[in-house]
Amino acid sequence: MKKRMIKWLVFSFIMFSFIHPFKVEAAISVSARNAVLMDMQSGRVLYEKAAYEEELIASTTKIMTALLAVESGKLDEEVNASNNAVYTEGSSIYLKEGEKMTLKDLVYGLMLRSGNDAAMAIAEHLGGSEEGFAYMMNEKAAWLGMNNSHFDNPHGLDSETHYSSAYDLALLMRNAMQNDVFREVTSAERYLSDNRDYYWFNKNKLLTKYYDYCIGGKTGFTKAAGRTLVSAAKKGDMELIAVTLNAGDDWNDHQQMYEWGFENYDHVTLQEKGKVPVDIRGQKSLYYTRDVTWPVTVKEKEALRSRLNLYHEADDFLVGRHVVYLEDRPIMSTAVVDRPTARSLWSHWKERTSHLMGLRAW
Questions:
Q1: Which of the four pLDDT bands, split at 50, 70 and 90, describes residue 311?
Q2: Do 252 and 284 share a domain, yes or no?
Q3: Does the keyword Disulfide bond apply (predicted)?
Q4: Terminal alpha carbon distance of the chain
Q5: Residue 24: its pLDDT value, please?
Q6: Residue numbers belonging to the annotated binding site for substrate
């Protein structure tokens, strides 16, 4: 592939007026040692408290276990419960040794009743062993950019080398919520397995009792980790993710973060898929590859500016980048192409790399 020249020809245009820097202060206080509030669509962090510190996470681990299970495409397969799975300590759906249950039912038992036996049965079925499944979990975590996480087991029982951060768990939940099957599971208030003559009721009281806008999540607790909670909520067209670790009052923490987020942020359109709405002398029509929205406060709307950077030499269909700044900080970088549907493999790789480095690339 031809090496692109470093020199750029820069064409700039202002979408919004630019004002002096300011800091948005969250008028909230949470009981949790670690917390984060994230916009689902963009991944922007709206509020954080020690969000990148490595902590024990208890049964919020099971979000990763459930995600790998639903992504496996094997939900209709029957899983044979081993002696090892049946006698896994902690919360349980009371599997019996040799009992056969579909992977789908085990995922519901995992997420609604937090069954550690279900977690181990899933792990052994998909990974061959607990260690094999832990390898899969860590591979997925690395792919998602969960840089402060390491998984030893599928259930979250305490281990010095089993940990994550509030931010990483938000990344995980954001990815999981893009899966329709996972959404269906995590939003269920109850479920009836073919193997049981009674319902499994969801332990997540934020969903079932305390907050009407909650659309899913996972609770957790051990003495060492304290109360842990990952949840998602939707009001209007905005979806948010909240995470608290070691929280004394997690139900109220999540409600408080959500109400603050919904009250103070609105989505604005940073670009619309299609022709770039600016004419550049000597250039044929240019195109954005997708719609992009971003959550901002009223004041932040006045501090957004946009810059169109065109390469001196085109790289395949890619002719430049559209970069949007909040004050002087880049918040989004997206491909600019020379035809309506072009999106090169090279640009996809660069956008993935930018994501892992913390710059939102689209």
A1: confident
A2: no
A3: no
A4: 22
A5: 52
A6: 218
CB count within 10 Å of CB 83 equals 8
159 to 58, 92, 140, 225: CA distances (angstroms): 10, 19, 19, 10
Which amino acid, one-letter code, is at 144? L
One domain for residues 44 and 142: yes
- Residues making up the annotated binding site are 218
Residue pLDDT, tens place only, 250-307: 999 999 999 999 999 999 999 888 888 877 666 778 888 888 889 999 899 999 998 9
Q: Give the CATH number, domain containing residue 301.
A: 2.30.140.30
CB 168 within 8 A of CB 147: yes
- Helices of type H across the chain: 62-71, 83-86, 103-113, 116-127, 130-144, 166-176, 180-186, 205, 250-264, 298-301, 345-356
Give mean pLDDT, residues 66-81.
Answer: 98
Give this prediction's pTM: 0.85
Contact 225, 90 (CB under 8 A): no
Q: Which residues are catalytic?
A: 59, 62, 114
